[in-house]
Amino acid sequence: MASIPQDKGRQQSRRAFLTIAGAAGAAAVAGAAISAPGDVAAVASTPAASGGPGQQDQHGTAGPRVNFGCALYDRMIPLYSGEVKAEGIDLNFIPSEVPREIFDKMARGLVYDAAEFSISEFVARMSAGRCPMVALPVFPARTFRHGYIAVNRRSGIKSPKDLEGKRVGVQLYTMTANIFIRGLLQHEYGVDLAKIHWVQGSIDQSGKYGDPDVMPLVLPVPIEINETGKSLSDLLEAGDIDATIGSALPPSRRRNPDIQRLFPNFRELEKEYYRRTRIFPIMHVIAIRRSLYEQYPFIASSLSKAFTRSKERAIERMRGTGTPRYMLPWMQADIDEVDEVFGGDPWAYGVEANRPTLEALVSYMAEQGMIARTMPIEELFVPV
Question: Which end of the chain has fewer surrounding CB within 10 Å, N or C?
Answer without folding.
Answer: N
